[in-house]
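User: Predict the full complex structure for these chains.
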Amino acid sequence: MSRQMVRPGGRGARVQASVHTAVHELLAENGRETLTVPQIARRAGVTPSTIYRRWGDLQALLSDVAVERLRPDTTPDDHGSLADDLTTWAEHFLDEMSSPTGRAYIRDALLGDPDGGNAGQCSAYAAEQIDTILTRATRRGEKTPDTETVIDHLVAPLIYRILFRPDGLDTTHTHQLVATTLDHT
Amino acid sequence: MSRQMVRPGGRGARVQASVHTAVHELLAENGRETLTVPQIARRAGVTPSTIYRRWGDLQALLSDVAVERLRPDTTPDDHGSLADDLTTWAEHFLDEMSSPTGRAYIRDALLGDPDGGNAGQCSAYAAEQIDTILTRATRRGEKTPDTETVIDHLVAPLIYRILFRPDGLDTTHTHQLVATTLDHT
DNA sequence: ACCTTAAAGCACATTCATTGCGTCTGGTGG
DNA sequence: CCACCAGACGCAATGAATGTGCTTTAAGGT
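Assistant: Here is the predicted structure of the four-chain assembly.
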């Protein structure tokens, strides 16, 4: 139930919004350990039952919030060359995702529905961004790799390190990944 | 607290074993949704307080069990060539990890301690296996990529697809990844 | 303005998480 | 060989969270 069919502007929309912001605030304040449904309900000015009815359980709600917060809010900047665009995007991506908050949201998104519903959405967001960059490069006349190639050799390694080896993250590595990715054209 | 210092053969060891198998069985039977500490305790013939004392909370316990079950039980087979070894290992890896059970264990491992304690352990397991294969190939006189390269361009894409895009998994793709990885020598 | 219907509130029963305290196991030193 | 001691376990109790029937509210259409 991540994609809510709420009458826009109605009471449901207000509740959804206040619950989402309540989750976000409480996560920032106390972390996830002590986060409970009644707590969220109190902060949002709602009763717990409302949350249980709309989202089912805490995990689904967290996953829902996570996906919304992981949605990119802007299209990638245009720096005039594919290499620059990819590098800048990758650095920005790493910045956002490798923070404790970012990692937490990714993990929450992974818990949502067992097959890649919410996680798949996140992946789709990244794919869209990449696609924009690649399309722009193609229009410029540059030779470009496939979106899939970029995902395999740039996005995947970044995410892998973020999730499994938070220590091994540095800018040099990112640049190297961009370079090898561009070899696959 | 994943690495328990239990007196071997004593009561503590029995408790640890029965709790671990209880978790494994209950996960297989009812999935993770309905899994609770008292439930595990009942199945294991233990009281909940024991579990709380030893593991702290459900997540830590799940993470502990996950890491133990994700530990490879055998060294990679030797097929006489790096390409064959890597391909076979990748297919085996994919088989184990892409099952619903495997995915669930990976996600549990990711939840353990916030910085990559348990997840890092899993990554280290994979690195060990890869390292064995690469060392063998070097000893044969083959030209081999770095372990890091294999992780970035083979392991990471596999895991990424397993976690974020369970649909996009096929053998062809795996072979392709092995091929491009071997280009990076 | 009314009517319909989906969503939110309320109250309550059930189950879970968590801790204090006494008991027992099993390794250790005399 | 035996008594001792530290840590681990079981029991029981409490406070909180989960989840559900029933009632009430308000959004959107007629």
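The interface with chain B takes residues 57, 100, 103, 107, 110-111, 114-116, 119-120, 122-123, 151-153, 155-157, 159-161, 163-167, 177, 180, 184 of chain A (CB under 8 Å).
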